[in-house]
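Posting this for the archive.
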Amino acid sequence: MRSSARRSPTRCSTSSSGAPTLALWERLLRALEAGKAAGGQPNGESSSGLYVVDREPYAMVDLRVDLHPEPVAGLRRLADAYFPLVPYYNLRPCDRTCRQRRSGRRAAARRR
């Protein structure tokens, strides 16, 4: 499906009714949870993953749970910790100050 709007489908935005919409990664995870609630896979699940790419050459979200008794619930637990950090992780490759602070900490650790 292609949208005529010039906004990224992965970012939070506002619908035409004015109500805020959820980010793509949250909508995808909710779809996984709805599938699980509707009965899931006939043979059961052992893994679950979420991979979202936007316009950057790296994934915005890349989460995976393998060999877990409740993989969708495990993915939700990881996502709840990761989703609030997505803006920071997307800033890191572009912001020189993030890299300088990180390399400065490494140099200080090596001197000890």
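The longest strand covers residues 59-65. DSSP finds four helices and two strands in the chain.
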